């Protein structure tokens, strides 16, 4: 049996930037190409692995490093791991990368660069309205920092391009890096 090498696709971006949406498109596309895939989505992780953690810098960092730890365990055993958490701090993302790469596992930082204005206009979950009303203190982008990556592996303009366009660019990168077998194009 041939076992493929695992890797970590690490999405970062504001709430509403498209992390969960692209995860939901990428995971089946990778499975279609024969890869074992696991997803660590911020919301779900906070309900289980990180239950009880809040949104202080310390708790956010703990959450991110837990995700990185599990991602590493999975990816070093051949799983394609997709993480979908805001991960607002540059230094903490770098620590996540270092943890994953310490096992020789490729780590791709993908910046979903939809602007605050775009995310707030969408307000998919109504969270920005709550944050503006003072009901969610410490909300990323409103009164808590988001530090965009300086040199991401890929930056996607999820504020203006369609999700399918973002997905295609991402799959192309994974193909170029030799991480996924070439497909007959992205399924639509
Ligand atoms: N290029 C794109 N990539 C991802 N999502 C997009 C894109 N363009 C528009 N959207 C929309 O933006 C919203 C993103 O929401 P979501 O995926 O829940 O964000 P997040 O998980 O980052 O908080 C969805 O309604 C999605 O349909
Ligand atoms: Mg999400």
TrEMBL record:
Query: Encoded by which gene?
Result: cysC
- The residues the record assigns to binding ATP are 13-20
Q: What's the protein called, per UniProt?
A: Adenylyl-sulfate kinase
For molecular function, the Gene Ontology terms on record are: adenylylsulfate kinase activity
Q: In which pathway does it act?
A: Sulfur metabolism; hydrogen sulfide biosynthesis; sulfite from sulfate: step 2/3
Kindly report, in one word, the top-level EC class recorded for this enzyme: transferase
Check the record and name the NCBIfam families matching this protein: apsK (TIGR00455), PRK03846.1 (NF003013)
Give the active-site positions. 87 (phosphoserine intermediate)
Which keywords label this protein? ATP-binding, Kinase, Nucleotide-binding, Phosphoprotein, Transferase
Q: Kindly state which reaction or reactions the protein catalyses.
A: adenosine 5'-phosphosulfate + ATP = 3'-phosphoadenylyl sulfate + ADP + H(+)
Q: What does this protein do?
A: Catalyzes the synthesis of activated sulfate.
Which Pfam family, an example, fits this chain?
APS_kinase
Q: Which residues form the APS kinase domain?
A: 6-157
